[in-house]
Amino acid sequence: MTDKARNVWLALISVPLVLLALRASYGVTMPLAVAAVVIAAVWPVEVWLRRVLPERVSSLGTILVLLVIALGFIAAVYFSAAQVVRAFAQRWAEFESAYESATAWADRWGLPLGGKEGYARLITVGQSLLGNAYTISVYLAFIALLVVLGLPEVSVLRRKLQAAFGADKRSEVTQAADEIAGKIRDYLATTTLTSLITGGASALWALATGLDLALVWGTLNFLLNYIPVVGNLVGIVPPSLYALVQFPNSVLPIIIFVGFGAIQITVSNVIYPVLQGRSLSLSPVAVVVALSIWGWVWGIAGMLVAIPLTVAVMIVCEHFPSTRWIAILLSRSR
């Protein structure tokens, strides 16, 4: 057996084992990975502040900037959730009627939705999501603690890595680390910009069609756009379903659905590729596979960090001859 064949077989055996280990250690490895992505994203702020402030003070300033951003995201999530719950409460009878009509239509086409049992399951899912708020808060607090403790240690860790490797490997290690951090920042910057475009366009479309909660649908699509592919599809569903209740016996729900779909398709397939270019170098198939794998490993959190982690894996594999074939498989064809 050649060395290349042996390496392929080792990868095929070790990768599933590593993924299973990551899935089993969700409570530890997921916060560590998310914290690493966050630190890589905000590190330029730390570097800029160190030019004018002492190191400890600059770390505190970076943490404050990150806190403001985090509070903004939390406020957006709370605002959207509160408005949607309020809308459901105000139109509860209409939602029940719409669900019964949808059930009757599905039964005629042989697509059972479960009737009252299916409706009860939907309510149970909603209650479960609200019930997980405490668990999510605990994980966010743990991630925040890791970021606070990790930011001052970045420079120390960099010096340790440089000391651990010989002169011939030292530049390669630092180059790989800098490239990974740069790719993560490029990805997050582009995603934030396209999320703003998606959210703004969604809100304007809702206002133009007279759909209630226009700001909520814009905020929801802004947040969901951080989950590639899946978030884009999910963002179409809630406003379209709400349109069925607000505009019964009308063609407006179809028009609203088409409009939200056109926004997502345009941003995802035209604007995003133009802004991102080929800087990530991930193939479209690799993106979908990465979302599936990391989503299975860590759920929604895994999908949020799937692209940065996959890019990091690709860059690391590219620096070793024995794993370069993995980087070639993941990369976009040139």
Detailed description of the structure:
The structure is a single chain. This protein is mainly α and 334 residues long. Among the domains are: 138 residues, no CATH class; 92 residues, no CATH class. 84% of the residues lie in helices and 0% in strands. It is built from 15 helices and no strands. It is globular. The mean pLDDT is 80.
H/E element string? HHHHHHHHHHHHHHH
Uncertain regions spanning at least 5 consecutive residues = none
Instruction: Give the radius of gyration.
Output: 23 Å
Task: Report the span from N to C terminus.
Answer: 31 Å
How many helices?
15
Q: State the shape.
A: globular
Strand content: under 5%
Number of strands: 0
Oligomerization category of the chains in this entry: single chain
Instruction: Give the helix/strand class.
Output: mainly alpha
Q: Roughly what percent helix?
A: over 70%
Organism: Methylobacterium oxalidis
Subcellular location: Membrane
Pfam families: AI-2E_transport (PF01594)
Keywords: Membrane, Transmembrane, Transmembrane helix
